[in-house]
Amino acid sequence: xxxxxxxxxxxxxxxxxxxxxxxxxxxxxxxxxxxxxxxxxxxxxxxxxxxxxxxxxxxxxxxxxxxxxxxxxxxxxxxxxxxxxxxxxxxxxxxxxxxxxxxxxxxxxxxxxxxxxxxxxxxxxxxxxxxxxxxxxxxxxxxxxxxxxxxxxxxxxxxxxxxxxxxxxxxxxxxxxxxxxxxxxxxxxxxxxxxxxxxxxxxxxxxxxxxxxxxxxxxxxxxxxxxxxxxxxxxxxxxxxxxxxxxxxxxxxxxxxxxxxxxxxxxxxxxxxxxxxxxxxxxxxxxxxxxxxxxxxxxxxxxxxxxxxxxxxxxxxxxxxxxxxxxxxxxxxxxxxxxxxxxxxxxxxxxxxxxxxxxxxxxxxxxxxxxxxxxxxxxxxxxxxxxxxxxxxxxx
Length: 396
Prior knowledge:
Blueprint: E1 4-6, H1 14-24, E2 71-77, E3 87-89, E4 92-96, E5 101-106, E6 112-117, E7 127-129, E8 132-136, E9 142-146, E10 152-156, E11 176-178, E12 181-186, E13 190-195, E14 201-206, E15 216-218, E16 221-225, E17 230-235, E18 241-246, E19 256-258, E20 261-265, E21 270-275, E22 281-286, E23 296-298, E24 301-306, E25 310-315, E26 321-326, E27 336-338, E28 341-345, E29 350-355, E30 361-366, E31 376-378, E32 381-386, E33 389-394
Parallel strand pairs: 1-22
Antiparallel strand pairs: 2-33, 3-4, 4-5, 5-6, 7-8, 8-9, 9-10, 11-12, 12-13, 13-14, 15-16, 16-17, 17-18, 19-20, 20-21, 21-22, 23-24, 24-25, 25-26, 27-28, 28-29, 29-30, 31-32, 32-33
């Protein structure tokens, strides 16, 4: 196990790239209404859940994204802030809002196809599989909706409480779907496995602290972080505990799993790599602020945002820093990595597109309000939510 590394500011390349990016963003209005000849195809590809896949890698090999001259093709305003990251499947965008609703929007022009009011905050990011949308709500339920109509197929009381004064606790965590099962955590200190077909419980296990993170599922194991600062690995078959390791303060960013390692951030500012088979710590890297978001993993690099206003790329093997890019405010948006570029939002109200190889700016786009959701990047389109708006972005 290597020692704890510390972050140094990486500013050498910023001057020229920052100037170029700002010049490029002066190409007129940052908003564009849909046209009669839309730039987004109805046959657009898939980004079906938070982190793109069941392992939360935030990366889709072979996918493409816009690199420069990116504009807002359409925007849709919900009635409150959006902390739910969009999912994209079969020409539709699915997202939750603090206004209590789950929305289905056209990926082509942002037109609303349906919505459902749960009556409580929806900060959970939808997961879509086989014509069904799964999402949690602060009302304590995990919902399954028909992707086409929004009709409720079933709901499961994932936040069921043992406190006689509270019926249910919030399900703010995003679900993960794999092999006919939905895995979800909740504020009631549990992780549950539910059958996709009918919402019946397969198993439910106690973590000992609230679970706000999206479970990562890989090789027959579910990995989840909790508010106590622990990462727990349980078997997908029956929920039996494989290992449990305390990595620091609260784990509010979801684990990402790739090539035998589990990557996770902590509220005390560390990025930690654990062996996926037994939880042994492989390396640890320190940022200068809380790490509240899930890392993204692509090939031999881990990308992570921090409240120290940075996006940093680390070697998967050693944790050594490859580059670091400074934004103007906290980075609470989980990065997405596509086609050699890192897509990430910041509280400074910008969407950044960075070179995955050296962190230089390829493009930056100002949006109204903080960007705390994770971008979905498919077929040269970026879908992201900021404040109360959902956006579809393309290169013209």
